[in-house]
Model the fold of this input.
Amino acid sequence: MRAGLGFDAHRFGGEAPLVLCGVVIEDAPGVEATSDGDVATHAVIDALLGGTSLGDLGSFYPSSDSRWRDVSSVDVLLEDAMQRLSRTGWRPVNVDVTIVAQSVRIAPHRSEMRARLATVLQLPESAVSVKATTTDGMGWMGRGEGIAALAVASLTSTE
Done:
């Protein structure tokens, strides 16, 4: 067994929509990003890659590479990361994501987010957790300048 920790943050200001865990969040500002800017999925990918010592998001999907412009983080990047894990003999056991944002409401979308991640991670929904918190108005996130996410993944060897 191994564990991986992932983190990502994006500044608000890009074109809407905001996408989290592959789910479009209406009435929320967009983020500045190369891909769809899905901070939650990016954190999950970093947790998976880090837990298997394969690298990080930027190692495989650098923002300097135009191939990743506007791609779906769930359908393209997470799917590719899962294939990388499989080829090296690893699979996730569970994933826990925390989204940190002052004004974006996660609760109405939580079950869809869990289902979307679970499908690509090939896990039951009960093994995927999506939570949210604020910074109580402190710092750049508290001022509504951006959004961040943290993820922890437990992994097991398939060999």
Q: What stands out?
A: The radius of gyration is 15 Å.
